[in-house]
Amino acid sequence: MFRSMFLLRRGLAALVLVGGFVAVIRAEDPPKTREQQAAEIEKQIAELKKKLDDLKAKSASTGTGKKPLTLAEAETWRSVRGVALSPDGKWFAHRVGANEGEADLILRNTADGKETKFSGGQGFGALLFSLDSKWFAFTYASVTPKGAAPGTTRPKAKVVLVNLANGEKTEIEGAASLRFNGEAATHIVFRKVTDPPGPGAAPAHSGSDLVLRELATGTDLVLGNVADFEFDKAGAWLITVIDAAGQLGNGVHLRDMKTGAVHLIESGKAAYRGLSWNEDTTAFTVTKVTDDPGYEAKWISVIGFTDLGAKPTKTTYDPKDDKDFPKDMGITGSASWTDALDGFSFNITARKKKGEVAPAPKEMKTEAKVDPKDDGKKGKKAGPTTGGASDGAKPDLVVWHWKDDRLQPMQEKQAGTDRVVNYSAVYWTKDKKFVRLATDELKQAGLVAKQKYAIGRDSKPYEYMSYLNGKLYTDVYVIDPKTGTKTKAAEKLASLFFGGASASPSPVGTHFLYYKDGHYHVYDMTAGKGTNVTEKVGTSFVDTDDDHNFDKPATPAFGWSRDGKFVLLSDGWDIWRVSVDGSGGTSLTENGKKDGIRYRGLNQFEAEPKPGVDLTRPVYTAMYGEWTKKDGFARIDPSKPGANVLLWGDCAYGVQAKARKADTFVFSRQTSVDYPDFYIADATFKNAKKVTDANPQQKDYKWSAGTKLIEYKGVGGMKLQGALFLPADYEPGKKYPTIVYIYEKLSQNMHRYQPPSAGAIGSIYTSAGYAVLMPDITYRLNDPGVSAAECILPALDAAVASGVVDGDKIALHGHSWGGYQTAFMVTQTNRFKCAIAGAALTDLVSMYSSVYWNVGMANQPIFESSQGRFTAGYWDLQEAYIRNSPVYHAKNVNTPLLLLHNDKDGAVDFTQGVEYYNTLRRLQKPVVMLQYRGENHGLVKPENRTDYAIRMREFFDHHLMGKPAPDWWAEGVPHLKMEDHLKARPKP
Description:
Elements: H1 2-11, E1 13-18, E2 21-26, H2 34-64, E3 79-85, E4 91-97, E5 103-109, E6 115-121, E7 127-129, E8 135-140, E9 158-163, E10 169-173, E11 175-180, E12 187-192, E13 208-214, E14 220-231, E15 237-242, E16 251-256, E17 262-267, E18 271-277, E19 284-290, E20 299-306, E21 313-317, E22 329-337, E23 343-350, H3 408-413, H4 415-419, E24 423-428, E25 433-436, E26 444-447, E27 454-458, H5 460-469, E28 471-479, E29 486-496, E30 504-505, E31 511-516, E32 519-524, E33 529-532, E34 557-560, E35 566-570, E36 575-579, E37 585-587, H6 592-595, E38 597-603, E39 619-625, E40 631-636, E41 643-649, E42 652-658, E43 665-670, E44 677-681, E45 689-690, E46 707-713, E47 719-725, E48 736-741, H7 763-767, E49 771-775, H8 784-801, E50 805-815, H9 817-825, E51 834-838, H10 844-848, E52 851-852, E53 857-858, H11 860-865, H12 878-883, E54 897-900, H13 910-922, E55 927-930, H14 942-961, H15 967-970, H16 978-983
């Protein structure tokens, strides 16, 4: 009987109809509980549903003829890695390639469109046309075979030279570092690649072979042991600095490129370094480096050359001969001529004597006096202790003191720069006088144009508080470089703790521009007087859009006119030409504020750029429509009002270059569906020709149907916008699952092209049928989280009202500051089906006084003067900090939440993630935290980036697309099963 029952059970089967498939569920022996049988049935149903989904996806792609993107495409997607335009505008070259494998180097004739393709090698490299537009050259780095063992030797680099007249190609193996000889364009020079010294071996010398090729004949001349080289602009002279083994033959050679004559203009048993031309390439300097037996560092002197020829004029400055030069200091780095060729400017630094050690600390004073003759009955003299102290081992100790200007971790991070401090100085060759500009009291100092003055900036008195609350102030000094006399010119200029306030000198070197109390000022260094130059302009230069805790932040300054008579400023919309005498200003663009257009930056595309903007010539500027998101490019004629619009459209432009000797421009154009390929245009920018096609394969893939712009009101009723990226097969009237990605303002990314990537919410998701929303968020002081909610929730309403977004299938995602807002949002609303918060701040009270380990400073300044947007610490604003901290509202969380937090996160401490996770777990909320061991604030290792991207997709697909829950979400992964779990994970 029992055997019969056994056979019956073995033969018993259930037929279950699932989505058109029949699942056979057999009874097994021994008998299973109902729960076990149900679990098996659910597992088979899930597997069948997955197969059904796969078939549906395949069917959909077959119907449209396009495939959905996967992570595998991320490695194949290509990008343009450098462009070059010939001086006459008739040739265009670009390198294009994927993350791995061989790139293409494409040379194009811009007149007839004919292209020649070369192997472009791996990564990036030089692309260079001769200035007569007759030759093109590029460097090539060979590709490392995929899967090659570490240390595998690969072929040496090479230089490829192309004759543009006949297309003849010449490859020079084992060469790199190419250069044509300026305007003459008669020669090219390239350096031979040398094998590195063996492990632990120091190079005996820095020189290597240089090959000088005459372009007309192809004749090569090898110049040995060249450490450095430079042509002048005209290409008439070549300077070579020789550094040979044993310093034999070291020196400086000057070659006449027309006659080939070589002049030895300096030699000695020394190393020569720091070759530096003056601006006009009519004079140059080098430094002479010799051993100094008493010091660890080398001794450096400066040599300058003028009146170039067979016997140029040589001027030498050796500090050993100068009684005014600071003792135990020396020149460091390179030097340069002053504009008038009457002095050398350089830096000096302290020098350490050989065997020198830090002075021993003074003995501690004690209250009790010890008599050395005492036998121990009354305080015996202490002898060596036991227990390991006598072996010379030192304690691993760090002393954190409240008077430290910087936290100990920051001091540790900055120890390298603290250890070697460089001070600017000048030596006047005609006066034979050394003047030190920077000192321990005023470390930031430097000469300005024409070298009549120097400007010093001092933030030291304010640094201590800046590292506590983020408010940094700077005093500005004018220095007489002939005497070193310092005069305070401006006091307590405000800036964020990231850097001292700017003092921008004029191109003529007589004035400097600074900002204070809501106005720009110009200081006349000759008269010793400052002038408010914006009070009569008729517009405000306070950035009212900046919602950080900063009083009257400035709008951008675009610099000076070349003649020093005007400063060029932005009021956030228009560009203004403002007189330095304070008499007023004129808008060069006129319609920016009226039409909601922001004019950004100035460019004149000069072949030889000089300081300042030449207002006698046309100036170019970028344009951005604040509310339309249109982008453009315009030309300004400073003598006429208004801007001449050259490009304007629903896209994003990037103007890269202008031909050196022709009115030919290269620019890029991108949208959310169009890669930023390059175009060539004439000065009118009409009938531009597309000259790159980086990713022709995109046509085979589902991508996106474009973008919609939504509008809503946020904090204080402020008008805000969001960019809504449509799914690939978008059908009007149909609603789609949507991922909301947040940070701060993001609608400006509406026309940003996003290639397939393991670390991004974009094309891979729109390809899979998701919509993606990027809304704007602005803030009210002391309420960052609440402000985010007041912006995000109306953005959801507007997105749903657009008819695109399915209000029941919305997910939220953000990282870092966006992660914080995500972690907070799920405590305020249940509107999200799920959420992913990466590297999130979760407890603002504990976060405020923790350390930003990546730089070693406290987070306090970030809270009070930067992203946190608080006006004080939590002791004064306790309720506000708690009100905006996710962890204190964790009981409200009902949204399935995936956290990412890495144990070596140096920006948002790992404990922030752990604290929130443990709180949610204690409350039995649906939460999983992913921790990638050893990773910092973001994921760097490719395998970790890919793993996280796959888990994100599984998480979103489960909650928004109804796909089966991944096992790591449904059940977790025990420690002892992690290895097997990872082996079984799906591949990209």
